[in-house]
Please model this.
Amino acid sequence: MGSWIILFIAIASTIAVLIWPIREVEGIELWTFARNHSDLYKELAVDYNEQAEAQGKEPLYVVLIDGPALTRRTQSGFWSNTPVADLIEVERGVISNYVSGPLDDIGFTDLTDRLEDEGLMETINPPSFGPWTSRGRIFGLPHDVHPVLLAYRADLVEQAGIDVSQIETWDDFVRLMSPLMVDLDGDGRTDRYLLNLWFSNVGKIETLLLQAGGGTFNAAEQSIIASDANAMVAAHVVAWTTGPGRIGIDAPNFSASGNQLKLEGRVVEEKMPDRLAGIWLSDLPQLGGKMKLMPLPAWEKGGRRTSVQGGTMLGIPKSTEDFEAAWDIAKYLYLSKDLAEELFRASFIISPVTSFWEESFYTEPVPYFSGQAIGTAYIDQAPDVPFRSSNPFHTMALTRILEAISVLQDEAASGVIVPADQITAEALIPRAKELLILAEERVLKEMDRNVFLREAEEFGGGADDE
Model:
């Protein structure tokens, strides 16, 4: 009986496949994972499609797909050589999924020569190409810059008479802001903390690693997992979240509990990429007029005052039948001044197209941030955002770094390294370095098994502190 049921299901499914209507898209199809992107592209597509119809060109058709589903569908299409969209947006966190094999087998079209021939390498902020570059070749048009500034509770800071212009380094920040660490409910315990930071928050930790010149891999594709910069940041993260010098609290973004801690004034600062500024405006309107932005404190005097978090590209799959039409639409969307203005007004994201940075909409005061022209503030730091790796082992490397920090925190809290009441970043750095060396060895061992990446001489390097 079971065999007959299986046979019946097979026949029925075959018939269904043959007769089921298949939606055919007439024109250039674009897949995106972000609703705000989709809404903006659909608005721009109205004007584009009117012009396209008059000129006999193919129209633009925008499809919103959940992020993980978009990644699965794209990878499945690349692996099985089945149709995908003509244009696909990719988020920085998943780009390494697409560049793990030989360059010739990457599913997205190599845009390097076209970008150079059309002078776009000079038009777009150079650091914005980093996440979409593998082995010197660029596979996507960058959507953004995402510089990070420090957002702080200006009402609390100014009431305490703290002059933020005196803050240049993280040491300055801790010293000058420490008076804000107070007991709010009279139970004898600190309730307000300076940093929204926890030793398990990979996003915030990576932001600090990149700012310090650390991270996972450098531009030459060499591992920097065990770099001195990473050891220094790892030690500070643990010292800031553990022991007597604790100044951090876990107030996660995009969560009701984290938002409540912010509204209660339980945390003073947030490391804020431009896109997060727009989210706070909608999710935490109660803080309007209480917030201000400033450059990130540097790790050392004269050091970098910004970092970077996230990012999106627009790629053209090799299976796209009309590359020129797709390329024209990609430029129409990503290099459009109209999109730049709409994107900033809707979400405070600044365009990577440097010629737009003088536009007046970036200089307008924003009431939520106490009347600051935050577009100008982000643009001032945009040229200095650090390099972001697209190495296929980036995610693994970042996971190993986080594991090392977790072990460091456990050992520090249990008094293995120094007595728990004597925890300092300086005391933790040597052990942090040892743990990161072990983490790097594990990653390099895995990398050595990838025959495709071994073909490139740049791969497989040891720790590089430069």
User: Anything to note?
Assistant: The longest strand covers residues 147-153. The mean pLDDT is 91. The chain has 17 helices and 13 strands. Residues 425-447 form the longest helix (23 residues).
